[in-house]
Every structure is written in C-alpha cells, then in structure tokens.
C-alpha cells in the first residue's frame, strides 16, 4: 500500500473526525432508522429512506477515513530543515507585482485549505514551491497570466 504524506495536525484531524462519526453520527443515525421503522410501512416512508441514505454516506465516509489513516505517513514539520521548501514546510512568499507577503504551509491534498493558509503540494503553486530555497523566484502560470513570487523565508 502506497504511503501518503500528511502532517501530524492533519492526521489528528482525520482521527478526530472518524471518532466523531463513529461515536456521535452513527448512533444518531441508527436511532433515526429505528424511529422511522416504528412508523410502519417502509415502502412509502421518506424518513426511513433518508436515514438509510445517511447511513450509506456515513459508512462510506468511515471507510474513506480509515483508508486515509492506514496509508498516512506522518511528517512532523518541526523536524524539517529550513534550507529548502519540502512537504509540511511553512513558507513566506512575496508577490513581486504587489509586494504583498503571504504565508502558506505545504500539505497533502486532504489537508489543503486556502483560507487557513494550507496549500496542497500537488497544486500548481505547491509544485512550484517544492525544492525552492529562500531568494528563489517562483513563476506560476495562472488562468489570468503568469504570476511572479519570491520565496522570502522558510519558517
């Protein structure tokens, strides 16, 4: 089985979600199915159908999370060197056109969340950053044209 890199924080978040689904969501759904069954005829019971659909979703999500956790290769960002940008690194980029600085953490696809400053290493920008060192220029081909960045710092 191929290992997939993930940050310690990302691994913990997946574990927490799995635990929540198993301990809270699944029991609530089982109760909803039992309640819907108690209403009688299941052939025209919309509540029963909805609860069964929810059960299928929950079971699928549990399988997905268990699969991701089993394949996870936890990378601790605190053990990384700061000479080059690698998975789990925090990087400060300067947009050369605007002078604006932005900080990102390079993470796996399951952890990416641009609002939290976490970009996937498989995204175009993530791919462009990997392997770069402070002072290197990064050229990103965006839909609106090329964007130019400088890797200012690796935190």
The largest pleated sheet is described as: 5 strands, mixed
Give the helix/strand class. Answer: alpha/beta
Number of distinct helices: 3
Say what the CATH topology of the largest domain is.
Chitinase A, domain 3
In the CATH hierarchy, the architecture of the largest domain is Roll
Order of strands across the main sheet: 5-4-3-7-6
- Average pLDDT level: 91
Describe this structure in words.
The structure is a single chain. It is built from three helices and seven strands; from the N terminus they run E-H-H-E-E-E-E-H-E-E. With 155 residues, the protein is of the alpha/beta class. The chain folds into two domains: 4-75, Helix Hairpins, CATH 1.10.287; 79-154, Transcription elongation factor, GreA/GreB, C-terminal domain (Chitinase A, domain 3). The strands form two sheets. Strands 5-4-3-7-6 form a five-stranded mixed β-sheet. Strands 1-2 form a two-stranded parallel sheet. A hairpin with a 5-residue loop joins strand 3 (90-95) and strand 4. The chain is elongated and about 70 Å long. The model has no long low-confidence stretch (mean pLDDT 91).
């Amino acid at each position: 089985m191929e290992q997939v890199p993930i940050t310690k924080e990302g691994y913990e978040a997946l574990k927490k979600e799995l635990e929540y689904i198993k301990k809270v969501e699944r029991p609530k759904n089982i109760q909803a199915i039992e309640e819907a069954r108690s209403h009688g005829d299941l052939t025209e019971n919309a509540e029963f159908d909805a609860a069964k659909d929810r059960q299928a979703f929950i079971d699928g999500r549990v399988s997905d999370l268990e699969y991701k956790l089993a394949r996870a290769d936890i990378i601790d960002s605190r053990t990384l060197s700061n000479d080059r940008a690698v998975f789990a690194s925090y990087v400060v980029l300067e947009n050369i056109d605007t002078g604006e600085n932005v900080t990102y953490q390079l993470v796996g696809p399951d952890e990416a969340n641009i609002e939290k400053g976490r970009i996937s290493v498989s995204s175009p920008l993530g791919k462009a950053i990997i392997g770069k060192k402070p002072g290197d220029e990064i050229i990103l081909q965006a839909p609106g044209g090329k964007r130019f960045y400088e890797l200012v710092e690796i935190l």
